[in-house]
Amino acid sequence: MVWYGGWVELVVTGPVSSGALTPGPIGAVTLQGSDGIYRDGLTVQLTGGTINALACTITTPQLTFPIGDISAAAFGSVVGTTPAVAQNTQNLGLNCSAGTNIRFP
Fold first, then answer.
1. Which of 48, 49, 50, 6 is nearest to 28 (CA)?
2. Does pTM surpass 0.85?
3. Sign (positive/negative) of CA torsion 63, 68, 74, 75?
4. What is the pLDDT tens value at each position of the chain, 105 positions in all?
5. For residue 59, is it left (φ>0), alpha (ψ between -120 and 50) or beta?
6. What is the DSSP code (8-state) at residue 14?
7. Is residue 75 a contact partner of residue 81, using CB atoms and an 8 Å limit?
8. From CA 2, how far away is CA 92, in angstroms rounded?
9. Widest distance between CA atoms in the chain
10. Distances from the Cα of 55 to the Cα of 20, 58, 97, angstroms
């Protein structure tokens, strides 16, 4: 039997916080021989490590969007259309951990 190696992937399934990983067994590998019989192979041990939860904080204390009075007719009939007089763009300041991936839809 030849073993070429493998890998272990930790998958996030809930909220994450920074801290040390607890050492111990995290899985087992069962091997099938050329005779078709399954045998205990090895136990996968986590020997340590650290999780660094990446996050951002908002640095803009307040955003105000004054749009005034707008006639209902200005909205038209297309869903999602905003009248030009009602459009207002502002910047939201973020302070993020190095390596944080920010995506906007």
1. 6
2. no
3. positive
4. 566 677 888 888 998 899 999 999 998 888 888 898 888 878 889 999 999 888 899 999 998 887 778 888 877 777 777 777 777 788 999 999 998 888 876
5. alpha
6. S
7. yes
8. 55
9. 80
10. 17, 10, 6
